[in-house]
Amino acid sequence: MSLWEIRKSVKPWVSGETILFGCSGGTDSMALAAALLKESNNSKIIPVVVDHGLQSNSAEIAAQTVAKLKDLGYSEVATARANVEVTDGLEASARRARYLIFKQFIDSYQPKYFMLAHTLNDQAESVLLGLARGSGARSLSGMATVNNIFVRPLLKNTRAQTEAACIEAGIKAWDDPHNLDERFARVKVRKNLLPIFEENLGPGITEALARTADLLRDDADALDDFANQYFSQADASNLDVAELERLPKAIRTRVLRLAIYKAGAPSGMLSADHIASAEALISDWHGQKEVSLPGNVKLSRISGRITLSTL
């Protein structure tokens, strides 16, 4: 029955188009592989296996994953080896390298969707990690089911369901040793924090955290829409302070973020402190100097305007 639950989650997304999905060989992605094959509905479904090269036997694991997928019934499996340059932590660097490969295959195959096998448990872990970092609503809203071409059909399914689905389908999934390595914050959350919460606060914490993510995503999406509407009518490099003062802070900070990125700040490089310093030019103005931001972006308040420039 667990495989049937995974199939139900996958079925609405399969309609005769080309679909790619990432497959590590682990429980979640192999359960997704089994379900997609059952629900293929004349779709061309192609697994993408990435060898990150982070373990001595990584090439062997990738080859074994390809073999398992072909045993399941996949005639075509796309494979590539990632070049992981560790710059901001192993997890983030590996993810960046992996998505570069995903993008290459998306360009090549032109699929309708690229599916990812994140589950409800992954969503709950993301919320807790965001709380630990003191993140805002967007980060606490976790992962979206749909993010452009990327689709996560299993966000309502639990890890227990994917594990049971693999057993039901006769699949021996790979256990990534990194999933047990407590050097990684996500592993600490999975192994230590969530079990403590379940034990002391009662069952259902994982589901509650995922539900919180859904609620916050609705709020964050609405605030983003308001900010985008304002920003589309504004002069992005020369913002009016009086107008910004009239905006609620939650929208004002989003407008500033949009303007800073448009001015040239690298994607994902703005922290809460960066935005707070920029926003202080409006809400806590006392003649302070310009604000320096990533990408050599400079914000200044001059004659009632917020001007953005790059060196």
UniProtKB/TrEMBL annotation:
Enzyme class: ligase
Gene Ontology molecular function terms on file: ATP binding; tRNA(Ile)-lysidine synthase activity
InterPro entries found in the cross-reference section: Rossmann-like_a/b/a_fold (IPR014729), TilS/TtcA_N (IPR011063), tRNA_Ile_lys_synt (IPR012094), tRNA_Ile_lys_synt_N (IPR012795), tRNA_Ile_lys_synt_subst-bd (IPR015262)
GO CC annotation: cytoplasm
Residue runs in coiled coils: none
Keyword set, alphabetical order: ATP-binding, Cytoplasm, Ligase, Nucleotide-binding, tRNA processing
tRNA(Ile)-lysidine synthase substrate-binding domain boundaries: 239-298
Any GO BP annotation: tRNA processing
Domain named tRNA(Ile)-lysidine/2-thiocytidine synthase N-terminal: residues: 19-192
Reaction equations catalysed: cytidine(34) in tRNA(Ile2) + L-lysine + ATP = lysidine(34) in tRNA(Ile2) + AMP + diphosphate + H(+)
Enzyme Commission code(s) on record: 6.3.4.19
Short name of any one Pfam family annotated for the protein: TilS
Name of this chain's protein: tRNA(Ile)-lysidine synthetase
Lineage of origin: unclassified sequences, metagenomes, ecological metagenomes
